[in-house]
Amino acid sequence: MQHKAVVLGNNYYIGLSTIRCLGAQGIHTVAADYSDTGTYGAQSKYCSEKLILPHYKEDTSHFIETLISYAQQQDAKPVLIPCHDSYLEIIDQHLDMLKEHYLLPDMEQGLYTTVMDKETLHQLAVEKGIRVPETVYLNDEHFADKIEEVIQFPCLVKPVDSPTFVNTFRRKLFKVYNMDELNDAVAKAKEAGLEVIIQRIIPGFDDHMHTFDAYLDQTSKVTHWTTCQKFRQYPINFGASVYTVQKHIPELYEIGANFLESIGYKGFAEIEFKKDEATGEFYLIEINARITNFNHMLHDIGLNFPYIMYMELIGQPLEPKAVTHTTNRAFWYAQEDLMAIKDYIKTKQLSIGTVVKSMFRPKTCAIWNIHDPKPAVAYSKQLAGKVVKKVTRRS
Question: What's the CA angle centered on 92, arms 35 and 73, to 5 degrees?
Fold first, then answer.
């Protein structure tokens, strides 16, 4: 293919799976990152080229200038694919400028940030009639009364800016059990300069988490989609997917497609929902506006989302497709799933028998691939190095 694919973020398996999905189709892939340390995704045999960039936050202007300079040196506009929220935030801030040099979904500048931001997403969902968890803001009148009467304890203190919060606290949110803990969590966030909101916990175990994964073309029409069910997360209860299974849930299409189309979304999106165990109603939790954790599992069931996007952006769109049956295929991030299983069993949320039973299905691993083993080897060396450092510190 004449158009290169520049993949931003290769120190995580999302970037790796994107490179594999495109490189296997004969596309020239460029592993772009601010460092070559820990970028095991760039070790894939499907990686055609490596590009070191200035740090996207520490030197944003130089980062954008370098991206543009690289594109100007190419014979055809490259396709730009950010594989991490932090990259997507910067891309969205400079979207109109980057569109002059890269092929990107023709979305309104700022909409990516709107759906990634918990507060603005909540407001947008309410406007469109989508259920969201009850939320209280720090500047609301009668704040304490609303917490006690509407939200109730335990509840969640969630960041508006998730990537920065995770980088700061190494967790996605705070779960608090009383007003003292809530005030302490809010104080920590304020000290870090981060804005937070307070949300009710939708009742239900982690297997009540579901996703709607879709691609919307340049007319904001869903052309490719499927649905999935999470089984386990890490950290448990409020973490990232480590064991997720494709399962057909028609209701999620009705909610998800209507919402994304109504806001003029374009490109790939994953909406996370939680099903209330008491009412059976689905609540929108968040939107991932970049390629998802279990991207390669979706590839293995017939939905190669990076390639779907690439082909439409170069003007050769693929035929619409939806996986509307349950394949029962699972995404498995073994390392973190083992840690999650330990915690689930320790807290008596799962039994060993339940865990063992869940494993008997076809699986797509997050990193390991028998046809492309080098990234797994690089990742293993990386882990071993961390273990050695910890042992050395203790001794």
Answer: 60
DSSP string, 285-335: EEEE-S--TTHHHHHHTT--HHHHHHHHHTT-PPPPEE--S----EEE-HH
Stretch (H or E) spanning 352: helix 352-358
Residue 132 in contact with residue 284, Cβ under 8 Å? yes
Q: Does domain 206-361 have CATH number 3.30.470.20?
A: yes
**Class for domain 5-104, per CATH?**
alpha beta
pLDDT tens-digit series, residues 134-174:
999 999 999 999 999 999 999 999 998 888 898 899 888 99
318: Cβ contacts below 8 Å, ≥ 6 apart? 224, 307, 308, 311, 312
Give the Cα separation of 9 and 84 in Å (integer).
Answer: 6
Model confidence pLDDT, tens digit, residues 198-250: 999 999 999 999 999 999 999 999 999 999 999 999 999 999 999 999 999 99
State the fold for domain 134-200.
Dna Ligase; domain 1 (3.30.1490)
168-175, Cβ contacts within 8 angstroms, sequence gap of 24 or more:
168/192, 168/194, 171/235, 171/238, 172/235, 172/238, 172/239, 172/240, 173/238, 175/201, 175/237, 175/238
Q: Of 286, 237, 260, nearest to 121 (Cα)?
A: 286
For residue 67, give the 3-state DSSP assignment: helix
Q: Measured between alpha carbons, how far is 314 from 320 in angstroms, rounded to an integer?
A: 16
Domain ranges of the chain: 5-104, 134-200, 206-361
For 174, the 3-state DSSP assignment is: strand
Mean pLDDT value across residues 94-103: 98
The residue to which tokens 């998730």 are assigned: 162
Query: Residue 45: how many CA atoms within 13 Å on its side-chain side?
Result: 10
